[in-house]
Amino acid sequence: MIVAIDGPAASGKGTLARRIAAHYGLRHLDSGVLYRAVALRMIAQGQDLADAEAAARAARDIDPADLEDPALRSRRTGEGASIVSAVPAVRAALLDFQRRFAAEPPGAVIDGRDIGTVICPDAEVKLFVIASAEERARRRALELTNRGEPVDEAAILADIKARDDRDMNRLTAPLKPADDAVLVDTTTLDAETAFLAAVAVIEARLTAGRTAASG
Ligand code: CDP
Ligand code: CDP
After folding, report:
1. What residue's CA is closest to ligand 1, atom 8?
2. What are residue 27's phi and psi, to 5 degrees?
């Protein structure tokens, strides 16, 4: 089984993906890490993130050790990821890795922006997770507060809106729900309630699949 989970920043897709993977015994890939690793590699080498050729080279050079760097989670890396991810050659260089991950038994939960539309268009289950920009900014602010870092909520909200705008309006693999995706709005749902809602969707899909196969 492949579960594709897409949605904007801080919608709760990563939290949901980890819980679903644990519940069904599937492997989990946070595809955002791949784009973050490209940005981080460029930042480390002092390259201009807007240089599409350098970004494509960095994407082809990514190796598994790059995916473990704690600096991947920083705000700057997330911003950088949303810049390099608009380059078609970057997306092309990262496609195979994701498809191979999805194809390995026993199946996978992959979260990102284009998993249901481009990477795994035949996924058995597709979820599109959303939440209001204000709620997403509140969640990111809370994460910073919990880490003892300074918080500027207005700046976080502006970041989130800028990232939504770039991700939804790029020409290659823009953020949008697949035609057969089920929308999960987590604005007023805690992680546990969102998980239970997602399991209900998955169980319904599995039952429908079994009925179709036996009928
Ligand atoms: O965790 P958060 O939602 O903040 O970001 P992320 O999932 O780590 O993704 C960082 C950036 O990578 C996003 O803003 C997208 O521009 C890009 N990305 C993408 O283009 N396609 C994906 N499948 C995953 C991430
Ligand atoms: O992966 P994505 O960027 O979409 O979001 P996340 O990292 O799963 O969630 C962002 C933050 O919101 C985390 O601190 C989660 O604990 C929190 N969260 C929440 O408050 N309510 C949910 N339903 C899901 C996540």
Report:
1. 32
2. -85, 150
